[in-house]
Amino acid sequence: MAHSVWNALVLCLLAGGMVGGQGVMLGIALPAWASDSSQVTPVQMPFEAPPKPQPAPDTSVPPLTEPLGPEELKRAEALLPMLEGKQEFWAIGEFVHLGPSVSPVLVKALTMSSPRVRYNAIETLHIMKDPSVVPALIAVAKDPNEMPKIREHALRVAVRLDPSLTPPAIEAMAKDPNGSIRKAAAFESRYVRQRAVIPVLITLLPDDERFVSLTAVNSLWTLTRYDTEMHDWESSSKQDRTEWTQEWSDWWNANKETFQLPEPRKQKKVQ
Q1: Hey, CA dihedral for 7, 10, 16, 19, is it positive or negative?
Q2: Where are the domains of the chain?
Q3: On the CB side of 263, how many CA atoms lie within 13 Å of its CA?
Q4: How far, in Å, CA of 269 to CA of 93, rounded?
């Protein structure tokens, strides 16, 4: 038995590479007979699978549901500057824990001077899923003096919380001189299942920016499933898009009184 164990040890050492074939490896001197591979007997070591992990209990703390008192609201306002910096994720977690009653405090952050604070305030409102803040988010999305990144994020979150209130913001952003703002309006429209966004999208089809036009036509296809003539929107020119827009305009003018949005397509589950 001892000889078999010793053979197994020698086999493991030899597998790592022998120096000069002299039976010396990793600073260990092997007996003379070990340099002859014919003396080594392979041994298969038993293997035991590691134990399966046990299900861990859910230790998350649910958000507060009761209204906050004056002291708690004062503490929440003191947390607003911490939405920027090394502790911003901790501050976001604190606001989420305080629950929907802290939403008015976060709305105040939308007018603070720090762009990072404003962006993280919008992200926190998204996590909290409080639809009462959508009007404030729409005001940010429509503000021409706000940074494009923050305007786009405000529209995105507003659409996720209550899309029925967002068509005015989409219409305003579709007329913005900034192409990225117009593209955001065209993209988010596909998640707003209201007829009001369809004419707005049609106005974006002949846009000077090709990527805005392409996003608009994709949103129109998603919302209406209307099959137009085959056109190469990817490589289209301004003149092409202007001509193709007439097809959409004619279709909408003929059907807008009776048109009903089709049911959204269900995504296929990945096996």
Answers
A1: negative
A2: 2-39, 70-200
A3: 3
A4: 32
State which amino acid sits at residue 175. K
Amino acid at 145: N
- Specify which of 21-25, 65-69, 121-125 reaches the highest per-range mean pLDDT: 121-125
29 beta partners: 24
Q: How many CB atoms lie within 10 A of CB 193?
A: 15
Q: Name the residue among 69, 146, 50, 61 with its Cα closest to residue 96.
A: 61
Average pLDDT over residues 203-224: 92
3-state SS class at 210: helix
The pLDDT tens digits of the residues spanning 24-33 come to: 444 555 555 5
Q: Which fold has domain 70-200?
A: Leucine-rich Repeat Variant (1.25.10)
Structure tokens at 269: 């589950």
Sequence letter at residue 262: P
The Cα–Cα gap between 247 and 57 comes to 58
